[in-house]
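User: Hi! I'm working on a homework problem where we have to compare a predicted structure to a textbook description. Could you give me the structure for the chain below?
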Amino acid sequence: MSAPITLFLIDDHTLLRRGLVALLSQQADLRVVGEAGDAGEALRMLPALCPDVILLDNHLPGVRGVDAIAGLREASPDSRVVMLTVSEDGADLATALRHGAQGYLLKTIDGDLLAEAVRRAARGEPVVSPEMMGKLVAAFQSQGAPEPEPEPEPEAAQPGPQLSPREEEVLREIAQGASNKEIARRLDIAETTVKIHVQHILRKLGLSSRVQAAVYASDRLRTEQ
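Assistant: Happy to help. Predicted structure tokens:
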């Protein structure tokens, strides 16, 4: 049996942390190894714990969670940082991802979905609450962020990257925040097949992550409407 995924919680509300510990401890493959009420306390504890995933609130004493991400990653380089917050601000979402967060989840998330998001983050997959995907695109555009891996201007007009019909279906599902397992179920194909399609999509579009693919798909849909 593989070792459990270890977690560290950072939130200034003690009752919420206790609730998260109780909730996540119900999952046999998840284990909370530490918790802190502010970023400073977390920075002192993290080097000795090296958790797989850090769940980080945005509203902390003295500093915003999004501004603490870089320091947390430096204190525990192998940890994946996932925001767990009430903030639905698209600018906070974009800042968190720019600073190296693995994901951005709202505290309204269902307990089972949170556990699955933690597992995905531990595997290195980006996790963003589906209701935040539209704000992700808007925030990146309004802040003038560069689009993912833009193609150089060709000397002559050339067609864009051609995705197969199945790859287009997978890309639409990614834009909605679906996991590989969810895409496999919705399209009635094997999860390993989904992974292959995702790899092909990223390669063809010159992208490096599912988040970039979601932004690309949402932006393209907007221009086509």
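For your comparison, note the following. Strands lie at 5-10, 30-36, 53-56, 59-60, 63-64, 80-85, 103-106, 127-128. Confidence is low (pLDDT under 50) at residues 144-159. Good luck with the assignment!
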